[in-house]
Amino acid sequence: MISSNDFKTGMTIVVDSNIYSIVEFLHVKPGKGSAFVRSKIKNVQTGQVIEKTFRAGEKIEQAILDKSEMQFLYKEGEDAFTFMDNTTFDQISLTKAQIGDGFIYLKEGMNISVVRHNGQLIGIEVPNHVELEVTDTPPSEKGNTSSGGTKPATLETGAQVNVPFFVEVGNTIRVDTRTNEYLDRV
Predict the structure, then answer these.
(1) What does the CA dihedral 7, 42, 84, 132 come to, rounded to 10 degrees?
(2) Is the pLDDT at 147 greater than 70, yes or no?
(3) Which residues, at least 6 apart from 171, have a Cβ–Cβ distance to it below 8 Å?
(4) What is the pLDDT of residues 107-121, one digit of tens each?
(5) CB neighbour list of residue 174: distance below 8 Å, 6 or more residues apart
(6) 43-60 mean pLDDT
(7) Does the structure show a pLDDT above 80 at 141?
(8) What are the structural domains of the chain?
(9) Which pTM does this prediction carry?
(10) Among residues 26, 29, 119, 163, which one has the fewest Cβ atoms lying within 10 Å of its Cβ?
(11) Mind giving me the DSSP string for the chain?
(12) Which residues make Cβ contacts (< 8 Å) with residue 6, sequence separation at least 6?
């Protein structure tokens, strides 16, 4: 159990039998009444962000998460993804629902973190930045590069990202997986 006064960004807690990660928090001491902690917390399994207020000093259960490094091996059909533990070489198969939105960035051979709580699988964490090849994008129009605009591009994993006009098919780009935004050309 931890106190709401000890909150830190990224800490995981159990609220209403769900596991949440603290996105941001603010200690508030009004002129009248008791102090409280206003926080934004993100459900680790669903990704939903909610706002919740805790009394100052309130005891909350801290969730201890186990992370293990795994390598993405291959995709079976449309909904099954096979991973191998890098230390024990055990293989597990996960569905899109278990993986979450990160499945659109999975490339064979990529290392990811599998997150568990009390032995139960919660989800995966893909790296914050991935390098992927552009497989389809409209051709650049001459004279359009100075406007700073963007065009849609499809990457080798099927992910859709808006890229600057100078990016062409065959280029490798770096993408931020948290925001699904183009960062730079590699």
Answers:
(1) -110
(2) no
(3) 133, 134, 185
(4) 888 888 888 888 777
(5) 129, 130, 131, 182, 183, 184, 185, 186
(6) 85
(7) no
(8) 2-62 (2.30.30.30), 65-125 (2.40.50.140), 129-185 (2.40.50.140)
(9) 0.65
(10) 119
(11) -EEGGG--TT-EEEETTEEEEEEEEEEE--SSS--EEEEEEEETTT--EEEEEEETT-EEEEP-EEEEEEEEEEEETTTEEEEEETTT--EEEEEHHHH-GGGGG--TT-EEEEEEETTEEEEEE--SEEEEEEEE-PPPPTT-GGGT-EEEEEETTS-EEEEETT--TT-EEEEETTTTEEEEE-
(12) none
The one-letter code for the residue type at 182 is: Y
* Upper half-sphere CA count for residue 41 (Cβ side, 13 Å): 23
Per the structure block, which two tokens stand in for 91?
């293989």
Residue 135 identity: T
Structure-block tokens of residue 21: 């990660």
Residue whose token pair is 């091996």: 73
| Token reading at 138 | 């409209």
Q: Does residue 143 register a pLDDT over 80?
A: no
Instruction: Place 130 in a pLDDT band, splitting at 50, 70 and 90.
Output: confident
Pairing assessment for the beta strands 49-55 and 36-43 based on DSSP bridges: antiparallel
**Residues with Cβ within 8 Å of residue 117, at least 6 apart in sequence:** 19, 63, 64, 65, 66
Average pLDDT, the chain: 83
